[in-house]
Amino acid sequence: MGFDEETSKQLERAYNAPDIVRRRALARGALGAQPGQRILDVGCGPGYYVTELLDEVGANGSVVGLDSSPDMLAIARHRAEGKGNVEFVEGVATALPGDGDEFDGVICVQVLEYVEDATAALAEMYRVLAPGGRVVVWDSDWSSVAWHSAEPERMQRMLNAWHDHLVHRSLPHTLAPRLREVGFTDIRLDAHSFAATELEPDNFVGALFPLVEAFVSRHPSVERDEFDAWKAEQLQMSERGAFYFALTQCCFSCTKPA
Fold first, then answer.
1. Fewer CB under 10 Å: which end of the chain, C or N?
2. How deeply is 34 buried, as exposed, middle or buried, from its count of CB atoms within 10 A (0-12, 13-18, 19+)?
3. For position 6, what pLDDT does the model report?
């Protein structure tokens, strides 16, 4: 998925959904940033984590937000306007800023599933993290999606099309050994289910739905009539109380040996 200006705006709207706010709180809690620390957000997007982490590290700490999308960085810079202990860098997860051992914590949420060489990105996080520092990597297990439809074969075609926007459909399956391979220890996995019986903007699937619609409706494998029928079915199911969606998201936390 290309993060152009319109996609960036859609993502920014999604970030305000209560389910996404809950996810940010869970990820920040797993990182446990402390006053005075220096934190790197890999794939900072519209900058929500950056500004929230700034409150946690305080005036004596600092946060660096890295993203490959200039449009995302423009939104993030605007969100952090007026804050002096923050820096934004355009770059990629496999080539992080810094000479090494300079961050107390690294957070990377819903990013590595788009990175071809996820292990190389983890090795970069290890390189820039100070000994004793902590990393949080959060990605979804998209193979766990349960999305109800009266036409399951059509639903599967929609999901197959959606999964094409990913590099790794099930990255959490291999994240623990990848983390060990690059040297991290004390690896912990906390799984969180995001489920809903209504399709509404306040929940995860409702926030996600405009992105799914934009991507799947243009996918070459999907006929427009079929997509329209699928979308109408999902809206109708939500209206009559027959909607169901669930997805497991995985939060991995670990440390660099002191």
1. C
2. middle
3. 59
